[in-house]
Design a protein that fits this description.
16 strands, 19 helices, alpha/beta, Rossmann fold, about 450 residues, 5-stranded parallel beta sheet
């Protein structure tokens, strides 16, 4: 809900504005002096401040400057002592607009809506810049109408505290979108914590999520805060929530319903206001039917759903993404190569595209990455299909490592560069291969 602070010393007008604007679903607070206004802005964050310039304890543009120092709200000046000069000075001092009494309520409401829209746009642009500063994997710019709708949903849902479920294939950027939602929400000053549900051992999951008391189990030498407690006031991102252990599901459900939890080994309930954003590449409804995921938890997590497009369905965004990745390396790509990139299926989505471009940037000594880009992609793909077939993951990894070492053994520097390791590591691996009696030519 949009929060308004109405700073007006005339009690009748102040109360009339609060009553009228509350009917329009605004959350209104009143203040009769600059001191009260500053106290209110220190205690609460407001979207718009309706500000009278003549108050019992201050008047003129200094009132605007004082409020501006304590709040990032849009300021709409409402005064009965205005003229053109005062209006100009007010705008220069930081006011969004200037309205002279008496005024039409409809005009005031239209002005408030414009101010709110501008404020949210500024916050979203700031959030995008902050995401880039934090090293986020890719830009959220798009030319795809469907993905533009996804971003629009994110902006709409960010204004609520309702739980969100992000659905999409691996590599489509679910965590990036979750961070974006957090950064444009009112929780942006609080923590954003990501939990990779597939990476935490089942027996440790409860302790990691809810924390534990000293002596709760062998090795628990001191009290530990869980991720929920650490994310207090902010957002908890549950990545690949379909892999959430079954014994944790009812406890998470209870927390979502009550905002209360118990540390492992404690009988005391703790409270934490945390928003849950979940992500999955699985069909949670199908898991519910198989009894592998609680149906009531699914409905709690998926009050709001956002489906992410695979990269193959938003190919017009490939140039935007590629140029974003290239800028980090100060490299270029030809238009012909860019068009060729659009023809690939991108089973690994944005993550695969990012890895491919980065690998080519590392290998390319010249300005353009074209040759390294396609040589590394097409050649490796055909060789792997021919040599490795349907090997299990661990065997496949070892086979790839071995084949590549043997193939480019004569250039240890290049091997180390491609595998992103030291020459020492390459030599150590070669010794292991010798011990296993592989035959190779030095």
């Amino acid at each position: 809900m949009i929060k308004l602070l109405i700073v007006e010393d005339d009690a009748n007008l102040r109360n009339a504005l609060i009553k009228a604007l509350s009917k329009s679903q605004y959350n209104c607070t009143g203040a009769s002096s600059l001191e009260e206004a500053l106290e209110a802005t220190h205690q609460e964050s407001y979207d718009v401040v309706l500000l009278d310039l003549k108050l019992p304890d201050a008047e003129g543009v200094q009132v605007i400057k004082k409020v501006k120092e304590s709040s990032d709200a849009k300021i709409i000046v409402i005064t009965g002592y205005g003229d053109v000069r005062t209006a100009v000075e007010s705008i220069k001092a930081g006011a969004y607009d200037f309205i002279q009494k008496p005024f039409n309520l409809d005009i005031l409401e239209a002005d408030i809506k414009r101010a709110v829209k501008e404020k949210f746009t500024e916050e979203e642009n700031f959030a995008l810049k902050e995401l880039i500063k934090k090293g986020i994997d890719y830009t959220l710019e798009t030319k795809n109408p469907q993905f533009a709708k996804v971003l629009s949903l994110c902006e709409k849902y960010a204004k609520t505290d309702t739980n969100i479920l992000l659905i999409g294939e691996t590599g489509t950027g679910k965590e990036v979108l979750a961070r974006y939602i957090h950064e444009i929400s009112h929780r942006k000053e609080k923590p954003f914590l990501a939990v990779e549900c597939t990476c935490i051992p089942h027996e440790l999951f409860e302790s990691e999520l809810f924390g534990h008391e000293k002596g709760a189990f062998t090795g628990a030498s001191q009290r530990k805060k869980g991720l929920i407690e650490m994310a207090k006031g902010g957002t908890l991102f549950l990545d690949e929530v379909g892999d959430l252990p079954t014994h944790i599901q009812p406890k998470l459900l209870r927390f979502i319903e009550t905002k209360k939890f118990r540390r492992l080994g404690s009988v005391r309930e703790e409270f934490a206001d945390v928003r849950i954003i979940s992500a999955t590449n699985k069909d949670l409804k199908a898991l519910c039917e198989k009894g592998q995921f609680r149906e009531d938890l699914y409905y709690r997590l998926s009050v709001l759903e956002i489906k992410l497009l695979p990269l193959r369905e938003r190919k017009e965004d490939i140039p935007i993404l590629v140029n974003f990745f290239l800028n980090k390396w100060n490299k270029k790509i030809s238009s012909k190569a860019m068009e060729k990139l659009k023809t690939y299926p991108w089973k690994g989505n944005i993550r695969e595209l990012k890895n491919l471009v980065e690998r080519a940037c590392i290998l390319a000594e010249e300005e353009y990455i074209d040759n390294y880009l396609f040589a590394s992609y097409e050649k490796n793909e055909s060789i792997e299909e021919e040599l490795f077939g349907d090997m299990p993951d661990l065997e496949l990894l070892e086979a790839r490592y071995t084949a590549y070492l043997l193939k480019v053994l004569k250039d240890v520097d290049q091997v180390a560069k491609v595998l992103r390791c030291s020459k020492r590591t390459v030599y150590r691996k070669l010794k292991v291969l010798k011990d296993r009696r592989f035959n190779y030519e030095g």
